[in-house]
Each structure stands twice: as structure tokens, then as C-alpha cells.
Design a protein that fits this description.
Elements: H1 2-16, E1 22-23, H2 25-32, E2 39-42, H3 46-51, E3 58-59, H4 69-74, E4 79-83, H5 88-99, E5 103-107, H6 110-116
Parallel strand pairs: 1-5, 2-3, 2-4, 4-5
Helix pairs in contact: 1-6
């Protein structure tokens, strides 16, 4: 059942947000080791973020873009990797920031795939 949900979320993410380039989990892990690491944005709620997030991720909930625009503007010259639980909220966030000229990548499979592969998480 988990496998079916994972595949469904991957297909949903790719189909809905095809305009944002996708980065794989492996590519992100390799990028985190480089001097030019991307900035990672977790757009889930603070509660979800505290339960576990990708190392180095900033938490900017998808429905708080305007409240965090000053923080986002400081990151405008960087590539942002965006994820949520399954892709829907990240897609909304990506649409809003694309319209404002940000450079974005979408984490393939979002949090569900990252967690399913048992990749490193930070928990508070």
C-alpha cells in the first residue's frame, strides 16, 4: 500500500508541476555537499517541519509567502529547492514564486519519498 501511495504521489507531483524542474533525492544529497548548495524550502506547517525535515531546510509554509517575502527576497539570486508532503502545497508555492522571478527546483517525490527511502531527517 505504501508503494502505491508513493507512486501516486510521484505521478501527481510530476503531472501537476511540470513547469518547475525536478531534482532527485540523490542529486539534492550530492548538492548539499558542494560549495554551491541550493537553498531548501519546506513549505509544510511548522508542526510537520518539526516532526522531520531535510537537513538545512528553511520552513516557510505555503500560505505565508507574503509574510516571509523579505526572507525570500534575500534568496532571490539562489536556486531554491521546494518540497512539501506530497507536492500540492509545493506546487502552489512554486507557482507564486515563479511569477515573481525566482529560480526553483521541485524535490522529486517530496517528503513522502524522502522519508520512504529513509534519507536523513532532522527532528526537533
Amino acid at each position: 500500500m505504501k508503494y502505491i501511495l508513493l507512486i501516486a504521489s510521484l505521478l501527481f507531483s510530476v503531472a501537476c508541476f511540470a513547469n518547475t524542474p525536478v531534482i532527485t533525492q540523490q542529486q539534492l544529497l550530492e548538492n548539499q555537499m558542494s560549495d554551491n548548495a541550493y537553498t531548501i524550502i519546506d513549505v509544510r506547517s511548522i508542526e510537520e517541519f518539526n516532526d522531520g525535515h531535510v537537513k538545512g531546510a528553511l520552513n516557510i509554509p505555503h500560505n505565508q509567502i507574503e509574510e516571509n517575502m523579505s526572507v525570500l527576497e534575500e534568496l532571490k539570486d539562489k536556486t531554491l529547492v521546494v518540497y512539501c508532503r506530497s507536492g500540492r502545497r509545493a506546487g502552489l508555492f512554486e507557482k507564486a514564486l515563479t511569477e515573481k522571478g525566482f529560480k526553483l527546483k521541485h524535490l522529486e517525490g517530496d517528503y513522502l519519498a524522502w522519508n520512504e527511502k529513509q534519507l536523513p531527517l532532522i527532528k526537533k
